[in-house]
Amino acid sequence: MSHYYNPIHPTVGSQNKSQYSSLGGAMPNAPQSSFLVPNRRRVPQAIFQPSGKWRNQTGRLVQTQAPIAIDFKGYSRQGIKMMELYARGALALSQMMQGADDRVLAHTGLKRITLYITWPGYESQEWMRPIELYSSGSPVTRAEIAAVVAQNFYRYFEKMQYCSGLAKDWSIGPMGVTFDKLVLVSLNNVFEDAWQADVAVDF
């Protein structure tokens, strides 16, 4: 039997618990069964490491900001489909997302962060893009940051579908993983101003 999930008013399950850790897919001991959707799997990413010896020596190699969780209202650490984040407007996102209007990075004083995307089998294809943290003079919201991350993954997948991947299970393209299967779980500060998305795939 198939189940319909209403993204605007999802049903809250009593089993809505998780053993989540930030960027869980990149950590060997991270739980893979923390999602309520049965076929949802975390993407096993390599955590960003800065190039250049001096950055390795002087940079902060631990996260300095708390992860930015992306969830439907009433859920915890389950994520939201990137297609929803990419296609829906601000009003719809504010209705469906937990803390959508929170100015999640306003306290940092940062003007921008850098999104780093890596994917199993495509590690040689570097993708780093700035995300501006102010829009019309105001700090961006959780929903706005999530939408920008989804836009970047959309463009990344557009580009990578024409490249050959080295990890068969995670191959990008019509016969493998497509953008509509991606789930954004959180955004994580992995080094100085570098952030990575904790991503899952609905197989």
TrEMBL record:
Regions of compositional bias (Polar residues) in chain numbering? 12-22
Query: Quick one: where's region Disordered?
Result: 1-24
Q: What name appears for this protein in its UniProt entry?
A: Uncharacterized protein
Organism from which the protein derives: Lentinula raphanica
Q: What is the lineage of its organism?
A: Eukaryota, Fungi, Dikarya, Basidiomycota, Agaricomycotina
